[in-house]
Structures are given as C-alpha cells and as structure tokens.
Design brief:
mainly alpha; single chain; globular
C-alpha cells in the first residue's frame, strides 16, 4: 500500500517536493517530532520553517494534526496495538495533548481551521481502524483545553462531507459530541 510518507520520499528523492509542498512540510514536521519532541522547540521550528501563508491553510492544519496526533498516540495509546489502553496510558495521552496545547492553539485560530483539525483527527482514526475510545478522548481533550470550540464539534457532527473518510464510523450517537453539548 502506498502512503503519503512514501510519496513524499519519492518526490524528495527526485527533487520534486515543490509539487506538493504541504506533503514535504508534513514529512519535515514528523522528522522534527522524532528528533526533538519538545513542544516549545517544535512550535519554534514550525514558525521558522513553514511559510506564514501556509500556516493558515486547512491542508497545513491537517498535516499538523496528523503529525501531532500520530506522535502522541504512538507514544501512548497506540504503543501496543490491538490492546485497550490502561488509565495511566490515557492519562499520559491527555498530558501530552496538554503539552502541545500552545502549538495547536497557535494555529487553530478560527472555526474553519478548527474544523479542519477535527476532520484530520477523524482521518487519523480511520487510518488506524478507530481504536476504541480514541476519538472521544481526543475530542474531550481538545475541547477542555480550549483548542477546539464546542460549536465546531457540532458543525462537524452535522456536516456532510465525503472528502474525509470514516465519518460514519467516527460518529457514534451519544459519543463524542453528546458529551460536549
């Protein structure tokens, strides 16, 4: 199966990454998180490395969320696949989300970008087979940390958009939007 990462590597090898700049930015964000996972350093790096015009693009937000969610999930709840995470692991996940609060708040400055973030979270969940409770935990954490506004989650719930896979499996009546209402 081909992935964005493989496509990015191929474009970079052929010096064609300029064709899909946000794909290259996403790959660079992931490399940065792997080499220096400190949230303040990551924020400083993004502000320096990513052109300001790109930072307000929903595609950038999707790349940012995909990178941050993947980093946090692989450090915590997805470390052991096919296993329901223990409370201490989900607590660590919430703690890491809190550590990246400033990063996310810096870029999720309006409802359109926050909605792009929610969809990116949905797509990440879809790509991982919707691990039990993951989406709810993230929705609650993003809401409680004042990263994503309640009305954005409600808009996501009502929005019909086939551009992002997995909405039918992502939204379970009573979860997660009901918690926020």
């Amino acid at each position: 199966m081909r992935t964005e990462e493989q496509l990015g590597e191929q474009l970079e090898q052929r010096q064609l990454s300029f064709l899909v700049p946000l794909l290259a930015i996403k790959a660079d964000m992931w490399k940065q998180l792997e080499t220096n996972p400190d949230s303040a350093s990551f924020l400083a790096w993004v502000l320096e490395a990513v052109p300001e015009g790109n930072r307000k693009d929903p595609s950038f937000i999707s790349a940012l969320i995909a990178s941050v969610v993947r980093f946090i999930a692989e450090q915590t709840t997805l470390k052991e696949e096919n296993k329901t995470p223990e409370k201490e692991v989900t607590d660590k996940e919430k703690e890491l989300i809190g550590e990246f609060k400033q990063v996310l708040q810096t870029f999720l400055t309006n409802p359109e970008l926050q909605l792009a973030a929610v969809y990116a979270l949905q797509v990440f969940g879809f790509s991982r087979g919707f691990p039990k409770g993951m989406l709810l935990r993230w929705f609650v954490s993003l809401y409680e940390a004042d990263i994503v506004d309640e009305h954005v989650f409600l808009n996501w719930k009502e929005d019909v958009n086939d551009s992002y896979p997995g909405k039918g499996k992502a939204f379970v009546p009573g979860e997660p939007v009901a918690y926020l209402a």
